[in-house]
Amino acid sequence: MNIKKTVQKSFILIVLAVLLMLFVFPFIILLINAFKTNAQIINSPISLPTTISFNNFKTAMDIMSYYNSFINSLFITVASVTVIILFSSMTAHYFVRNNTKYSKFFFLLMVASMIIPFQSIMIPLVSIYGQKLGWIQSVPRQTLIFMYIGFGAPLAVFMYHGFIKSIPLELEEAAKIDGCNQLQTFFKIVFPMLVPTSVTIGILDILWIWNDYLLPSLILQNAGSENYTLPLAIRVFQGSFSSDYEKFLPAVLLVVLPVLIIYIFVQRYIIQGVTQGSIK
Questions:
Q1: pLDDT of 31-46, one tens digit each?
Q2: What total of structural domains would you count in the chain?
Q3: Residue 234: CATH number of its domain
Q4: Which residues on adjacent β-strands are paired with residue 256?
Q5: At 243, is the secondary structure helix, strand, or coil?
Q6: Who's near 141: CB < 8 A, 6+ residues apart?
Q7: Buried b (16+ CB within 10 A) or exposed e, 170-191
Q8: 144 falls within a domain
Q9: Assuming Cys at both sites, which of 176, 190, 245, 280 could form a disulfide with 166, CB separation 3.0 to 4.6 Å?
Q10: Domain range enclosing 262
Q11: What whole-number distance in Å separates Cα of residue 213 and Cα of residue 272?
Q12: How many CB atoms lie within 10 A of CB 20?
């Protein structure tokens, strides 16, 4: 039996190691090629660089206006995630504590909206907010934030809804007896208990919004490079017939690195928040 268990564990470890290499291999290729020239990348993309130089990174940052694009991405991501967490938690709390047929209907309607593919509505969105309302031309970054809130709220409400149902109603009733109104009860009693779920939603939405390319390309493509997010800014290195790999790959690494560092430190909260909302 011990031999059998050892063989099973060894097999599982080998499978996990292979899967790990499959996931990590693209990032390793990106990392080692970010320090090479175009000729070295084309001739031997899997070999290690002969010299370590950060000139590629400096040149890429200057060409793509990295700091300006970084600030745009940071502003859009922080604003969107903050509003999603705040208003989605309040909405989910209202749905749970006002258990009427209308609240059930709107909750199911919001959850059902998650199955609608973005590609099926992106043309009407651009037509309405661009041609009809003119928001894309006048306030492009604010329009992008507004859309992120709309697309991110349903999942957030769904996750908060499952967790809030586990919070005893007696806690809120005790707060009301002590003189708290509805807002005070929510922010002093309920919202602090939603921290694990809020962290999970925040991480997932940060990864999504920071790395998103399709929606910013629709909203910001005609707004000028000063409004570009990082995924849009790296387009400058790709031409119609060729790509400047020695600058493009360092730019991609610079875009991915901030959110990758955040994810490494807070990844455990994702599983924790999801399980707490589903088990309790």
A1: 888 888 777 887 877 8
A2: 1
A3: 1.10.3720.10
A4: none
A5: strand
A6: 72, 75, 76, 220, 223, 227
A7: eebeebeeeebeeeebbeebbb
A8: yes
A9: 280
A10: 63-279
A11: 29
A12: 10
Q: Please tell me the total number of residues recorded for the chain in this structure.
A: 280
Question: Measured between alpha carbons, how far is residue 221 from residues 32, 131, 212 in Å?
Answer: 31, 15, 14
Residue 191 lies in a domain: yes
For 162, what's the count of Cα atoms within 13 Å in the CB-facing half-sphere?
17
Residue the block writes with tokens 């039996």:
1
Select from 86, 126, 110, 132 the least CA-distant residue to 220.
126
Phi, psi of 179 (to 5 degrees): 105, 5
C-alpha 168/C-alpha 178 separation (Å) is: 17
Q: Concatenate the DSSP letters of all residues of 147-201 into one string.
A: HHHHHHHHHHHHHHHHHHTTS-HHHHHHHHHTT--HHHHIIIIIHHHTHHHHHHH
Which residue blocks in the chain are alpha helix, DSSP H?
Answer: 2-33, 38-43, 55-63, 66-97, 101-112, 122-126, 135-138, 140-164, 169-177, 182-185, 191-193, 195-211, 214-220, 230-233, 245-266, 268-279
User: To the nearest whole number, what is the mean pLDDT of the chain?
Assistant: 84
pLDDT digits (tens, 9 = 90+) for 73-123: 999 999 999 999 999 999 999 998 888 888 889 988 888 888 888 888 888
Q: Does 42 map to a domain?
A: no
CA 92 vs CA 87, 95, 117, 164: distances in Å: 9, 5, 23, 8
Residue 4: both structure tokens together: 């059998």
CB contact at 8 A, 249 and 57:
no
Q: Which two tokens stand for residue 215?
A: 């929606």
- Assigned token pair, 5: 């268990």
According to DSSP, residue 119 is labeled G
Cα gap 114→178, rounded to integer Å:
39
